[in-house]
Amino acid sequence: MARPTTFVGIQISPISFVDEGVDAVLDTLQRRIGINVLMIGTISWLGLKVGRRISHALEGFPDHGVAAPYAMKGGAYVRVRDSYYARTAIRGFRSPDPELGDRDILDMVIPAARARGMRIMPEFMEPLFKYAGHGATADVEVEGLKACMEVDLDGQRTEEPCTNHPDYRGWWHGLIAEHANEYDIDGIMWCNERNSPLDRMMQGQKPGCFCVHCVDQARGRGIAVPAVRAAFAEVWKFFAAARAGTRFVDGSFVEFLRVLLRHPEILIWERFWLERSKDLDRELYAIAKAAPRDLSFGLNVWNRNHFNPVRKAQWSWAEQTAYCDWVKPITYQHQAGGIFATEMQHFARSVLSDVAAADFVPAIARILGLDEAPIDRVIQTGMDPDTYVFGQCADTVRGVEGRVPVYMGIGVDAPRTRADQAVCTPDIVRRSVLATYRAGGQGVVFSPNYAGMNLSTLDGGARALEELGHKPTGG
Q: How far is CA 205 from CA 14, 54, 190, 194, 209, in A?
């Protein structure tokens, strides 16, 4: 078996360094596990990114850190230099969490990490707010943020910022520029987990965004916005009816095709939304690459992209390699059964509402290249590292066509949401790491957050690295 490369990363929140001490955390991660890349969450309002274990009510607390809930408010856990935010009205986003106080998490960690030869790559994820299943802060008080909210088909403001809004987009530009220019870091990991208009309708949400900024940009591209809105109104009627249990004369799938063919304007808007979303990725990549130091920019890629054929068609690996230096596909094997089952529910409640899941899921799974437990057991069994992680890694390696390396996102105690859901084990982690290198991957990132992982589970990854003949202790 080929000797692996030296990229062994872990996603980690600021609170772990406060709870356990910087030196203690780094020594444990480097000596016990073999970590040499720290992916620190430096700004978020999601517990999954900057908090302690968010599933403690179901799973208890891990075997390290503070065994107590974290009254997290969220925000930026680094200094905020106003000069980077001249092009946005968003202000006052420094975290008020008393555990960090006025300290800057990167200033705290970088010197100790450098002394050990460890690399630092802050991680960012969009959306930052009110993300179900991610331990989101209920109340977010950030000056200027409310003005950036999306507008749905009916003209109502939503609770999610519009990525096309110049203040919100400018804020992201400032965040990446500040990190890239002010800190001795090695790179940045970026994750874009936004839902497209079609995606939202399948999930029972009204499509958007129709704020003045989206409308103006669409008009600038020659899109007839009134016709688009009229088309969405008809297509939304179909999705609402399907979710309400309406039985269509020719079945839900044929009816969906019929309404889509009658109103193709929604596909024009879908493409417009998709290109603007990818433009944000490209813009952040360009900002990072323009920094005075040579920074690596990686993409942390949503597992829904390989669990949904529509998203898989929209986000090709070959295209994404044009604006990244490496990719990290999310494959949280024990949790993946629940994610896949939810994805299939969206189909079952919309375009395939009159087809039994036992009939259509195997066909979709085959289209996606999945060979896992049946839909009625996949939540309880999770997905097998030797088929799922191996298969996704092999697909990604093939898809990037040698342009960038693949670092697999290995789930380690990713939060469970129900008692009968599969539990992560050291052997699952061990086999996931082995499957990654067997499939041609060049590194791993233990995810989603060290604060929610058991060290005993992480030990499975360390054993795999030892078996491969490579357990790094430096950069």
A: 34, 26, 25, 13, 12
